[in-house]
Amino acid sequence: MASVLERKLLVITGKGGVGRTTVAAAIGVLAADRGLRTIVVEVGAQGRLPGLFALAPPAPGVEAQLDEHLWTISIDPDRALLEWLQKLGGRISGRMLAASGTFQYFAAAAPGAKELVSMIKIWELTQGERWRRRAGSYDLVILDAPATGHALGMLRSPHTFGAIARVGPIAAQAESVRELLEDPAQSSYVAVAQATEMAVAETLELHDELLSQLHRELDAVLVNGVLPLRFTASELQRIDQLGGGADAPAVVRASMLAARSVHNRARFQRNQLARLRRRELKVLTIPFLFAAQLDLEAVRKIAAQLSRKL
């Protein structure tokens, strides 16, 4: 996985609630620390990353600098559509095209139109020559993609429009996006999961869908929130002996049950990690952070953990 930070686009997805945005931010911090001019892309009116850096969220579609070498943007499909139309329209005003009843009908009715426009904007961010004059280029674009199902819909959108529009600028643009997504030299795919049965099952399904639809495989799975195995078998036996007696104080019995519960959960997590490794996936773990909230300091700790693995 040493090369994923050397690609133009890194797509990060996974089941909802597994910490995708936190991991995307951590990888962004890591890449920026390595001197790569990096932008982390959120889809929709999210704008969560600036808050980690104690910054006010910018307007949707605005590239905002978070730190040295690190930027973020929250893609607004309507604004991205307007930018694209201005690029296509030449002397014709993009706003005039956007107001066209024919194009409005097309954008509303065509399956995956907003997904494709978002992917076109992501493609544009990877280019050395940008649509807007004086817009900077990036070494790495990290897409904090939506949850698995919606993310697959975004990634399928170039194929959807390739079937609808076989010629013309829309077809050409869809083909450029498709090439970016399918070329292992330009893009990579990372799943974020937790070591639960449902999250692992969804990750395996994601791997199969990527292979089926894009002829790509997951470059790695980052398993978030992994607990340490703190006790050996002999230590557990000793703990059981201390807390198992009827005359043992209540606090001792409660401590024994808590220790046993945490150990069982950590062991269950190892079983889920084994499910992923049996599919010959590259599995990297992120330790559970015992913190009241995941702030910038916590994100930097995760980045430090990943630095030894990426």
Overview of the structural elements:
The protein is of the alpha/beta class. It has a single domain (4-228, 281-307), classed as Rossmann fold, CATH 3.40.50.300. The chain is built from twelve helices and eight strands. It has helices spanning 20-33, 49-52, 77-89, 94-99, 101-109, 113-125, 148-164, 169-182, 197-214, 233-243, 250-278, 296-307, and strands at residues 9-14, 38-43, 64-67, 70-75, 140-147, 187-194, 220-226, 283-287. It has an eight-stranded mixed sheet with strand order 3-4-2-5-1-6-7-8, sandwiched between helices. Strand 6, helix 9 and strand 7 form a beta-alpha-beta unit. The radius of gyration is 23 Å and the shape is elongated. The mean pLDDT is 86.
Question: Outline of this structure?
Answer:
With 310 residues, the chain is of the alpha/beta class. 52% of the residues lie in helices and 16% in strands.
